[in-house]
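Exercise 7. Given the components listed, write out the predicted structure of the assembled complex. Treat all entries as one system.
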Amino acid sequence: MSFDFYRRHLLGMEGMSKGEILHILETARSFREVIMRPIRIVPTLRGYSVVNMFFEPSTRTRVSFELAEKRLSCESVNFSSGGSSVSKGESLLDTVQTIEAMQVDAVVIRHSAQGAPHFLAERIRSSVINAGDGYHEHPTQALLDMFTLWDKIGGLSGLKVAIVGDIAHSRVALSDIHSLKTLGAEVMLCGPKSLMPFKVESLGVKITSNLEEALEFCDVVYMLRIQLERQAGERFPSIREYRQRYCLTMERIKKFKKDDFIVMHPGPMNRGVEISAEVADSRYSLILNQVTSGVAIRMAVIYLISGGKDRGKF
Amino acid sequence: MSDKFKLKAELMNAEDFARTIHRLAHELVERNRGVKNLGIVGIRTRGAFIAQRLRSNILEIEGVEVPLGILDATLYRDDFRRKLKQPVVRVTDIPFDIDEMNLIVVDDVLFTGRTVRAALDELMDFGRPAQIQLAIFIDRGHRELPIAPDFVGRHVPTSIGEEVQVRMKEYDGEDKVLLVERVEN
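Answer.
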């Protein structure tokens, strides 16, 4: 009922307790109600300022954070690396300290280097929210995925989830694995061996390279995008071959006759590569629910983080 | 809650409780000359249960079920950043259009008036009611804002160190109103 949530940073899902995750989900449920109102804005965080620092391209995460901030009445400022002093060779810490000196309360950061948000959290006074760091974590994405599932089916305990595709380049996969395991779900990873990270089995997950085996196993299939911008294309012979083996098509789903089957994808989708257009738009798909959940989850995270009073401490 | 309380008096038992609700329901209907355009909005947590009871009493009196909404004013409060941790946000549920309605806002205890201020601000974001009235079960005084109730179950003059606890079956397992004093530990 009155759960103690004292975090003032959100850096990753690793090590977050079940109680903390559920508290964020409960809070997000209240915020989802707010964004369905005729006036979708509450005055809660008036005067709280947030800087969105995106050192990597992003559309949905960034828009989602911006909307979440605006709907909480935060002041928000956007910063992207192109056209800023970063292109003049300024270091990450200098950039952030400069901005912090303008008195901001929180920094939302996406960066291509694993651990960049952790590095900042140790060095600046503001709260830090990780919006994706390299191949490491993307905690708000995992939280919105958990929220979408929890909202659809209630508890996640015993749920079987297969994550399919480019696991090696995916921060979403890692954050989702931690969250799903903490909430009691079983996880199977599926993809070509060349896209499987080294020693991933140590996370307590099943591994297969056969999509049919994964579909047979799971209640929920989570398709990942092939990250061509991270040279994923060098790890398998051709897109055509990948599609033949791993594209989620209606025929493949129907083969297992699971009526309440669920398909998810973090977006952006490569339609016709990892997921067919027909599946993406089908009744199995929760992909748009995920997007709606994203704003509510980010409102909940900013709201809770802003209450972490013990500054200077994690 | 780590705060400890010492019981000073029992202000109402279950029978008193029911009578007061009953009287308030009659007053609401009388003052509004029936239930046309009337809607009730309870403030979480116990204000919502008082609102439900008023509604079922009005149903008995007038034979009409008036629309009922539940409001969580947490996001509109002005004191949340003075507390040590964020208060739990719960869902507001107003399942009817409040435009041009005569709304009765209901809460269990009226103290500083800050919760009511927050609730009024929140309601304004849902639409433009024709009128808003305030019904309070216990008014304990010590207002910090210019807010006055239209309907009062009972006035209870208190000192600042005292507290009025409204206990309700739906939430606390019994209907009772207690006057308690906070004990420093």
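Discussion: Chain A has two domains: 18-138+292-306, 140-287. The first helix of chain A runs from residue 18 to 34.
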